[in-house]
Design goal:
Porin, eight-stranded antiparallel β-barrel, mainly beta, 1 helix
Length: 193
């Protein structure tokens, strides 16, 4: 619990300092979907151009036991705890920042995971690449916005214990072979008006 609080305080401190020098095209937010997997994913977005976004996500998973509906064998009872960082460029089709639009992009996911079963403990570094697709709501209220979509990707580096259907923090659960899928529902708050 102490690690979680320290990570959250450091993350929010960096965001607070960064927010003081940012312009009106920056957002902070949270991805709601990973909460079901005992994961907190905080999100920062910078609109570089009307059609180009760069975002950064930092998250922490706390004793997650989530697996895909396709789970098999020993992957059912793996507890995972870990920290992850995602870097994500996106292209978005829209007329201006206030209007809705479709987005397409990719993210590079870096995860440090502690896995634990009744018999084995494992620490590992996972590098993954995910494609993302979805819809941006534009501005809902004066400062609120939302992204709805999904990410679909593969683990490039790293080894997990148990079934490949188990959850990887920041990447989601195994689906159709070794691919990973996770939903995106990010509620964002514009830093400055």
């Amino acid at each position: 619990m102490k690690k979680i609080l320290i990570s959250l305080v450091l993350f929010l401190s960096v965001f607070q300092l960064t927010a003081q020098v940012l312009d009106s095209n920056s957002y902070f937010g949270i991805n709601i979907v990973p909460i079901s997997g005992s994961t907190i994913e905080l999100y920062y977005e910078k609109n570089l151009k009307t059609f180009l976004i760069l975002s950064l996500s930092l998250g922490y998973t706390i004793n997650s036991k989530i697996s895909s509906v396709l789970k098999v064998g020993e992957g059912n009872f793996i507890k995972k705890t870990g920290l992850f960082l995602k870097i994500e460029p996106k292209l978005i089709i829209r007329r201006n920042i206030q209007k809705p639009g479709l987005f397409l992009g990719m993210n590079i996911n870096n995860s440090i995971i502690d896995e634990e079963t009744d018999l084995i403990k494992n620490n590992s570094y996972i590098l993954g690449i995910c494609g993302i697709f979805g819809v941006n709501s534009g501005q809902i209220l004066k400062r609120l916005s939302m992204d709805l979509g999904f990410q679909y990707g593969y683990k490039v580096i790293g080894k997990l214990i148990g079934s490949y259907h188990s959850y990887i923090p920041g990447m989601g659960v195994g689906h159709l072979g070794k691919a990973r899928i996770q939903g995106i529902l990010i509620i964002k708050y514009k830093i400055k008006s």
